[in-house]
Amino acid sequence: MISADTRGFKEKLEEEEKKLLGEISHLKDNLDFGDDVDSLEEETNETEEFGNMLSVKNSLDDRLRSIRGALERIKKGGYGVCTSCKKTIEPAVLEADPTSTLCRQCKMDKKE
Description:
Blueprint: H1 4-30, H2 40-76, H3 91-96, H4 104-111
């Protein structure tokens, strides 16, 4: 049985997962060079645009992996527990990023 707070985070995560899947699908549909051979300048622009879109897709894929990891932790009962010190992650940290795996102190220690 999950707590009401965890249920709320789960709903947020599932909503974001659905949104990301839509964005990734849209990007995949647009990651096509086509078979046409245009001017060198146009091909250069298409190549640059492809690189930019691929970078965005990679960022979305990374976020999706984080979300799915958080959903898996919820499923297994480990959500909200710091993976470093095993203490409870503060609600404010999870509000800021529901995929957080570290408590505030461990995040600060990691930055130093």
